[in-house]
Amino acid sequence: MLRFLQKSKDWILILLGIILIMFAVFNLIDFNPFTYVESLKETPAVEQEGFAPLFIPITRADGSSETYQDGGVSSNAFIPERIVIEKIGLDAPVEVAHTINVDVDGQEVTQFLVPEEFAAGWHEGSAPLGVIGNTVISGHHNAFGKVFAHLVNLDIGDEITMLSGTHEFRYTIVNKMILPEKEETLEMRMQNARWILPSTDERLTLVTCWPANSNSHRLVIVAVPETLPPTPTPTVTPVPHPTEVIQIGRPITELLSSGKSTPTPFLQNIIVRNAGRYSVNIRALPDMEGKIVESFKAGDEATGLSRTEDGDWILIEYKDKQGWVSAELVEILLPVKSLPTAVVATPKP
């Protein structure tokens, strides 16, 4: 071994010299190789076309941080499906904004991924509609469909409508803030994030970036439930004769799942109408988690193709696209030729 070292001492000296030179260079450029290796294990924040990422403190198993609930929502909870703001002409679907854990400035935080399409995002883990808590909805304002492009034009006192199935929830804006966000310290951004954390009251919070040319600030709008008078129950007029009456506009599932045979020509002409005030989501699959492929506009008609076995979902063709709509949100119209011809008596002179 000693003989080997004596023969190789020149190479050993050269190698040690190279190592010393590398450390000197690292010190000169303030580079720590151990810190660099550790940083490779971190998950960076996801960039979304300049949209300032939405962060909150990460969930702790010991409950040390104030974060979103982690137990999911009940099966009968009212999950937001659409958002309607008449003042700015907004009628858009709402999808789930999922979360990932990322590392920012050496701190692990939770980031919300805003939908990259014309859709708002309901923050995963925030409150559903109609219960105590903070229902948080975010969206892009200058990219990916610009769903919140005109959100800045809203004022205190304006109304927001949220839809979940056939259920409608109305809110009144009580607070509007524009907060510095981009390029701010993580501590400042965590302060801003308090507005999207859980609350002890029922509220709706809308979030986007501002202005369009820089996304340097966060636009936050807070609304509270609107108090509405009770809706009177309509009086049903009894049918004078116990004969079957075909009702124009009755729910399509009532017709298709009645168990009665229907003439084939009639099935070929089923017309489905959205008779509601707002658009209805058309989904790729007959499920509330199905991807939204189109919006069935209020007052529009489509062709009914089929239904699920339980009659809860209807397959329609609309604007050259096929998809599923919730049966409780649409109505069926019978073509005029499907109605029986009445024999009208001629009055005597």
TrEMBL record:
Keywords annotated in UniProt: Hydrolase, Membrane, Transmembrane, Transmembrane helix
Transmembrane segments: 12-29
SUPFAM superfamilies the UniProt entry points to: Sortase
Domain named SH3b: residues: 273-334
InterPro entries, sorted: SH3-like_bac-type (IPR003646), Sortase (IPR005754), Sortase_dom-sf (IPR023365)
GO molecular function annotation: hydrolase activity
Name of this protein: LPXTG-site transpeptidase (Sortase) family protein
Organism: Pelolinea submarina
